[in-house]
Design brief:
Order of helices and strands of chain B: HHHHHHEEEEEEEEHEEHHHHHHHHHHHH
Strand content of chain B: 5-15%
Mean pLDDT of chain B: 92
Helix content of chain A: 55-70%
Largest sheet of chain B: 4 strands, mixed
Shape of chain B: globular
Radius of gyration of chain B: 24 Å
Number of strands of chain B: 10
Oligomer: heterodimer
Structural class of chain A: mainly alpha
Radius of gyration of chain A: 12 Å
Low-confidence stretches of chain B: 1-15, 20-30
Shape of chain A: globular
Mean pLDDT of chain A: 87
Order of helices and strands of chain A: HHHHH
Number of helices of chain A: 5
Distance between the termini of chain A: 23 Å
Largest sheet of chain A: none
Amino acid sequence: MSDTVVGATPEAVRDWLIERVAFYLETPAGEVHPDARFVELGLDSVYALTLCGDIEERYDLSVEPTLAWDYPTVNALAGHLHGELNGG
Amino acid sequence: MTGRATAPVAIGSAGPAPVQATPAGRAGEPAPDRMAELDRRLGDPYDDGNPVGYRAVLAADERAELLADGERMLDGYGLNAEFVPVAYGGRFTEADRLVRTLRSVFRRDGTLGLGYGVTNFIAGAPIWTAGDADQCRFAADVLLRHRKMAAGYNELPRGNDFTRCELTADRVGDQLRLTGRKQVVNNIARADAAVFLARTSPEPGNRSHSHVLVDLTALDPARRRYLDRHHTVGLRGCQIAGVEFDGCPTPANIVGAPGEAMETVLRAFQVTRSVLPAMAVAGLDTQLRTVLRFTRARRLYGRTLLELPHARSVLVGAYLDLLAADCLGTVVARALHVLPAQTSVLSAAAKYLVPKLIYEASNELAVLLGARSYLREGPYAIFQKNLRDIPAASFTHANAAVCLATMIPQLPRLASRSWLRADEPPAELFRLDHRLGPLDFRALELTARGVDNLSGTLPASQPAVAGEPALARLCAGFVAELGRLAGRATELPPRGRTIAAGRGSFLLADRYAVLLAASACLGVWRRNRRFQADTGWLTGTLWRLADRLGHEPGPLPDGLERRLAAELISRADEPRGFDLAAPRLAG
């Protein structure tokens, strides 16, 4: 389900990412620390590629599959994505 | 180090002159002449006087040595040039043509194929993918002077989990200091150069590794120790060993950007995962040829073994599996050119399934050969050597589990975006005589983003096979299977999409690989006029694949089996290869 570009607030993007990470970790969203590295949370490089695929589907944009390697926390990735979605 | 113009004989090299550079853009003389030349040099394998015939191959294997006359012959032919892109003075343009050239060598001696040179291609791949002009010229020069380059990736405790590799490269001024070891590396002790995957940052994650290009001839020997050679059941002549570094200095020659190695590997290894198994199809060719000879010579119960229906069935089954393996391997090699955004999945599927088909068919043939499959001497001794060599095509350089694990995370998106929705691929993917340009390593993508056109061939082929009931039924079965897999893939639980996935996910990926093979067979049949005249081989290959999926198509129709057996015998008598290209052989 893709969201519209306009209206994707930084909080919305971050919350969506937390939900995605929680899904892959099979853990409650509250246990996903937004400043912990994905690798430390237990998401390895393969998960990172899959997460980028989810981002593409959700926000209907094309991202580098290595995005989660270069922005390796929820907050970093959310910040970058929010910039991308709002023409930054 | 000279550039790529006509290079002089290297100082200290007693061997033949380096390969004359081909003018850029001309891609060398017509490939069929080159392949015929290689086959001529290989000569008749059954001629005991042939220095590279089976007798010599087996003797070298018994001694666990590489066939020295074979290496000399390949130096004279200039095989390494096949691994170097034309842009750097070599002959490499199309992946499927590389496969066909190397099949000549692998048909004769898999140990020679790997030991002489295929690992040169593996080592070169990251350089052609991410290297700068100087690095590419350096690597090209090493190879065009008939020297070896090693691919330093493996560490025994790490398996294929490269992100946890421990060999480190610490920056000290304009140098790197290497510390740690690499193991199970082919030719490491006799290579002039190597590419090492090294850790260049202590941070966890995927930006902490770099490819270091090392001139092995220039290292301080006090800081570098070669480890003992591994003794293997097969590929006995290959010199597989390791190296240990103790703060060994080397120029800071990093291929690509520092920290970029994991990304480079995900591109470069798509090429190697595609071509290596396709080359190995030649090993099955030899197995089949050898056992066919046996069944024609061996008389039991008043007739030759070949005349017994069960024996004929086994031979034809192996022939069909060879063709299916060739279809998948060749199509995926061509996909590197035509569908570079999709080969992250396709290359893993080929590296998984093609060696499996080869291995299982070889084992079925072993049962037919019986006790002689166990003999290290005699007229069929080449069979047991190949039997020992063949499994390596599966577990070396990305084993079966790793390949399936590469595919699994991508299945949900492929299923929802593409399966039973996507168009079939462009015709040139399958048109074997359609020339492709030089491979662009940098066009390869890390994930397929849910796009899969190859499986689109299944529904797209249904109109073409509608007039043949057996084919129509088989094709419909595959289409239905794809629909079932799509349902299961989209419902995979989170952990089922990762390395920690359960059996269900692995089975799903396995079944999808079989559907890709069926797609390849259909595509090759539909897009190449010379295969369309007879639907027999297509019916047969699809029958075998349907059987593999448990669709229970029953035994092959008797008339079809007889026709395919006759074709097999006819090819053996010419002699010609058993693969799609069916090249004339010297013996």
